[in-house]
User: Fold Methionine--tRNA ligase, cytoplasmic from Eolophus roseicapilla.
Amino acid sequence: IAAAADAWARGAAALPKPWQPQKPVLPVEGMRNILITSALPYVNNVPHLGNIIGCVLSADTFARYCRLRNWNTLYVCGTDEYGTATETKAVEEGLTPQEICDKYNAIHTDIYRWFDISFDCFGRTTTPSQTTIAQDIFQRLLAHGFLLQDTVEQLRCEGCQRFLADRFVEGTCPFCNYEEARGDQCDKCGKLINAVELKSPQCKLCRGVPIVKPTQHLFLDLPKLEQRLEAWLEQSWATGDWTANARYITRSWIRDGLKPRCITRDLKWGTPVPLDGFRDKVFYVWFDAPIGYLSITANYTDQWERWWKNPQQ
Assistant:
């Protein structure tokens, strides 16, 4: 309080001059360098106040605070554009997935500009940089033995000649008999569903009856990382500033044992899988989307690794 009163008494003339970073903003040796991201908003809708307050506004407030402190600050965000939800929206509006992304990316950009959100870069995930970085991470995982193959039973619509993603299937919930359950969840009882468990399943596109067929997919071999992750978590919990909720959720995953996680999908709209036998598939959006933080920064500056691969900073 005494320091604040003293600073106030000395007036604005005594304040340090505002830091003017170079463009693009890059880490500066000897300064406090702050990289800020907020959750990438999904591209298939118009953002509302809840979306903005939930992540974008709080990150913007922190970015403005950091700049006022004369910390060298980069704030990046962008639209998350791959996945089934985009394909579903494209079918609803009679557009291609790319046209949907172009339409809603422009809407998002205009709304955040209207709210004066202080992004240094607002990008998107449907870019060549996203493909390059995601495929490179995939190849590294493959080379280090962290991927495995397995057969998955999936619903296939012979009329549409495609395996059906969860959102393209409707049927009767096997738990509560609600007749409009989706292929991933029942909105009435709230339980998660495997699409092949639905009673009387229907393809949402043509209303045909799908059949169950096996298909090959790639999985992250998370059990192989469990021991190393556990040791890292113990150290991080002891030295970091984790919320009680974050600790609880993470402990529950570790307690129940990590399971292999499927990272490919039988879709057309997504980052292509660069491996023979899987080139007709794309990466699952939750493998692909977090890499968007890196690729958006890479589209902002070709020196993006100075922000993302710089543990000393």
In short: The two ends are 31 Å apart (CA to CA). Residues 163-212 form one domain.
